[in-house]
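Reopening this ticket.

The earlier resolution said the output was attached, but the attachment link was broken on my side. Pasting everything inline this time so it's all in one place.
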Amino acid sequence: MSHNLINRREFLGATAAGGALFASGLFGPRLLASDTGELSKPPPVKIYKIFAGRTGDFYLTRPTEEVAKFNQYLSELEKKLGDVQFVGGDTIPPADAAQLAEKVKAADAVLIFHMSAQGGDTAVLGKIVDVGLPTVLFSEPYSGHDWMFFPELRKHGKNVLLRPSSDWSDLDRAVALLRVPAWLKQTRIIAWGPPLGTSAACSAELIKERFGAELVSVSEEQVKDLWRGIDPAAAQAEAERYWLSQARRIVEPSREKIVEAAKLFLAVKQLMIREKAQAITSCHCMGDPRACLTFSKLNDLGFVGACEGDMDSTLTMLLFAYAFRVPGFISDPVVDTARNALLHFHCTSVTKMDGPAGSRLPFAIRSQCDSKAGVSLEVQHRVGQAVTCAKLVNLDTLLITTGRILETSTNPMACRTQFAQSVPDARQLFLNYGRGVIHGGVMAMLHRVVFYGNFMEPMRDLGDLMGFKVIEESGVA
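Inline output:
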């Protein structure tokens, strides 16, 4: 995998490590189930397909039979993904673009094939794009000359991903990304206690307006009531199966403390079932018992558990989970220019960084570092692994930098889980941290989320589809 970009084959390989790009319902907005229930699957994402322009024996025009071949390709892709449905199939002309724009409103997204300049020019296609749905515009070489005007759609702020390519398999990744905005509209997020982060990310109204997701508030006492009601035997079984029997080492915490932490997971599981939620974040996670084990297991399962009430990081983790099938590690980073590195550390971590179908990373059960109390995790991350460090802030800007894990450490000055990530330019990252777009306190400014895999290019694509800016944080401001 390249250091700065990920190509199509590498993308498929990276996501396959997280349980296969095409796995059905693995990371969509499904619901946690009771011990005897089944995980629900989201309904298929409806993608309206359109063929724009003439076909046949004309100059710079796609062959007529190519429409049938595209349809066959999409039929196979529909089966592979398992959670999309292609509808429509109109051709412009003879279809009228204005009338067609009304029809596509019933879909979740749009896929346009540019077949030739006739009927497929920017003005005509602009009527479809103006509907406001996430749109992919696929244009093969020799499909007319209008391709040079298509970037104007992006410059005018339209949510359109332009894909000028001779490789039909480039459609795979583009279609996979079309699911993300549709899934966010089906997502419910629990704020256990007041949410923290940028002001926009803490607003239930703005989250609903921007992404369609719902933010639900619950109190500390509501969670504690559920926690107190958990069967002690069930908590002991949970602790033994997922933590005690799997840990490489248990250092400070007693068995009793670990069982209490496992009991909290079962309480939060009940809460998420009740609220039909896919994500939770808590400003009370440093309480007693701490939520480190709870959030770790939720992320292992393909849901989102985010530390310290951080709503910006919660939304970042949902984006990556839905787009790439990978969970994230929330970090309190520091910069080291001597090693051209960003040093990540925190007292909890996902143990299945490749996704729910992957293997667990080695881990020790420790106390929380600064309080020397509670239960937290020291996870041994994979040296050499390509990673993406990112954070969506203000609901409109993704800060991102990529690199590789250089080494792990156990420095007593930092939190339990620690590793160093290479970055393109540590000095620029230090001087331009936040790139002037984050406004808020320490929580808004500090945290970043690390994901296994290099997703710089696909996140730029997702930004095009969803209308957020992507800024390389370690670049020159």
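Reporter confirms the inline version is readable. The CA atoms of residues 71 and 89 lie 8 Å apart. Confidence is low (pLDDT under 50) at residues 1-26.
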